[in-house]
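User: Hi! Is it possible to get a structure for several chains at once, not just one? Here's what I have:
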Amino acid sequence: MHISKLAVIVPAFLLSIVNAHPLAPYRTFESLNAVPQGWEEISNKNVDPSTPIKLRIHLAQQNVPEFERTLIDVSTPGHVSYGNHLNQDQIDAILRPHQDTTTIVKSWLESQGFSNDLTFKNDWIVVSTTIGKAESLLQAKYKAFQNKQTGDKVVRTLSYSIPRDLHSSVALIQPTTLFGAVSAMKNTISRVEDPSILKPSGLRLKGGIDAACQSSITPDCLSDVYKYKGFKPASLGASSNKLGVNGFLEQYAQNDDLSKFLKKYIPDAKNATFTCQPVNNGLCTQHPSEDFTEANLDIQYTVSATIPHPNIYFSTAGRPPVQDLDPNTNEPYLEWLEHVLALSDAELPQTITTSYGDNEHTVPQSYAVKVCNMLAQLGLRGVSVLFSSGDSGPGDNCVNKAGKKAFVPTFPATCPFVTSVGGTVGVEPEKAVSFSSGGFSNYFARPDYQNAAVSNYLSTASDAKTFKDYFNATGRAFPDISAQGSRFHVYVGGFDQLVSGTSASSPAFAAVISLLNGDRIAKGKKPLGFLNPWLYGVATEKKGLMDITQGTSRGCSGTITGAGWKATTGWDPVTGLGTPDFSVLQNL
Ligand SMILES: *[C@@H]1O[C@H](CO)[C@@H](O)[C@H](O)[C@H]1NC(C)=O
Ligand SMILES: *[C@@H]1O[C@H](CO)[C@@H](O)[C@H](O)[C@H]1NC(C)=O
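Assistant: Yes, the chains can be modeled jointly so their relative placement is included. Here is the combined structure:
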């Protein structure tokens, strides 16, 4: 499959060739060699060729390497540009597709009879057409598929082609090969209906931490373990330092559950709240008796740690319909990213946490590259973007796209321009939790900022040798850091329950980052922005991260016996660089 990362200057002679031969030979642009795991074709259902479809053609951007370089420079402490984040107009001006790129794609579409059906956006073109016409434009065959678990239905094709001469001008075309790309990292959410057995014990561990934090987590445990207890964030007014929480898949954060949670765990703050921002017709509904575990977990742990800073819950719609076969099922990450990138600097949160993801190989690479590029744009705007690493250790069923045994990385956690958060459990000592996902990307190469830490791991850790056949040692390694992920008290449907998952770790770490951002802003400094060059650099050197060296992840059951990564000294693929020490990080 082809990925066009770099814009190509299309020579004039090529344009004339395309004009002269509008049907230059087609080449496969992207294909899947099987229906993605978890989906099956609905064999008795033909897709009506007259069904309307809106194809989005994303054009290749210019200057991507320069853009990525700029992001690293503004995010590296000590660099002359550190903290000089750009606004969206400046970013768009860098990345805007070359005029020739737009021209060559437009003339192809016009030559195929689509002159009147085109809408031009920043770096993409929407073609409003029918399934039948899309099939001939893309030499594709759209079919109906169903998700075996959720019953969601989609209309997709397993491959599509475009003229060879256009391959370097097009970044991706959807909806085509993208099935699901989003699931909540709540695979291991475990509910304990009666948490009364876990009341704070009053006993203190050596470090002064409540002994009850060994078996279940409250906001107090986190502020003790990560050393921000007693820190009073400056009140900066409604717009200055905001924390964003991403919600997909009809997960709605509940006010009622939040106030019950605060009443019990942060009695001083019972009227603290969040605002909900609908994206792509998402809803902000309140159903106090329903179980919105993921949304409530995320918002309860971000709000409780960051009072009085505003928290925004982004509620993005875009899940495939269960009933009808509408090919235009929205794709939530792109919809959400377009929404946030369009926010003004004053509206944009400085820290955003997301507890959703999927197996990297089930996401088409062109799509992963596009989403990662947009996440990087957030970093260049000055936003710290955090994602849960996933809840399946080295992988769940551990079979890759080619059907071979392999560890399975999680996307977007593998995007080199986000901070990926693994999970820990226990406080004295704090150890890796067995479900914490980590490993190595097959789509993204290892970025320079983690070269030293990861090469050290690869040359010294015994696991790197034991499992060498199952992972790609040249890939971007994840997670970057970690935080508690096991047995969090969360109010869900009106009751205190216990929830586990790296779903909990990302909001826990994001809250610490948001406190640091608020502190910096109160002192007249720039927000931290993209964190990784700082985390792998000065934050590690100055011991702002507590290295986790015990515990092992587990996964690949039934496929690779004994699969799992051990936490080690330094970076490892289960806890990354370690967990945050706010008291040290605040001084850096
Ligand atoms: C909570 O309510 C009190 C009194 O009504 C008010 O002074 C305070 O600002 C409120 N706090 C928040 C976080 O809304
Ligand atoms: C391994 O990762 C690199 C990126 O570092 C990628 O180019 C390559 O295709 C990957 N190999 C496999 C087998 O996926």
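The chain has two domains: 12-62+97-174, 183-587. Confidence is low (pLDDT under 50) at residues 1-21.

User: Great, thank you!
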